[in-house]
Amino acid sequence: MSARQVSKVLVVEDESAQREVLQYNLEAEGFGVVMAENGDEALLLVAEEQPDLVVLDWMLPNVSGIEVCRRLKADPMTRPIPIIMLSARGDEGDRVRGLETGADDYMVKPYSVVELMARLRTQLRRTRPASMGERLSFDDIVLDAAEHRVFRSGQPLHLGPTEFRLLSTLMEKPGRVWTREQLLDRVWGRDIYVDTRTIDVHVGRLRKALMANGGNNPVRTVRGTGYALG
Description:
Blueprint: E1 8-12, H1 16-28, E2 32-36, H2 39-49, E3 53-57, H3 65-74, E4 83-87, H4 92-101, E5 105-108, H5 113-127, E6 135-138, E7 141-144, E8 149-152, E9 155-157, H6 161-172, E10 178-179, H7 180-187, H8 197-210, E11 219-222, E12 226-229
Parallel strand pairs: 1-2, 1-3, 3-4, 4-5
Antiparallel strand pairs: 6-7, 7-8, 8-9, 10-12, 11-12
């Protein structure tokens, strides 16, 4: 498995041809793709798959895209997920309504797939910088995702691939408490079965590597929940 984490995109689109185009282009760019045909399915998949970004069509059967967006942004657990709304509605009032509902970006159909991919990367660079090859820092720790290198106080550290992905996840949101299940999903993926106790083993290895040249332990254990950085 590559050291770079794969971002997962949920595409919510009721037109099969549009879904296929989006799936093809997203997979060609290296993203993991989850598909939904309607709003009800989208809400279920957000809870099950925990996507990193949602591409959401406004006009959906039953639960509309606007309502899906409203519900996701009203829930503290899903509020941080960027939403790019797609719509044939190009009037200024519709754009404003979409953005005021909580969408992070809004594109009018027919849209440029190249532009959509650029906007998608911009949103992910903001919320998941490590997955986009960005350089992260926390206190005296620096993680270069593009070069797959970690430094502490200027000294290079030697981390295994799993510890690297674990650290990059923690560094993307310092202070956030991650449950073991969330870390397993982010670091290993949902398709691989790993016992949650495995997380404790790799956190121990990560701590040892981070303190190899001295310094305090930056990974905090939250009893009964999981781990946080700082």
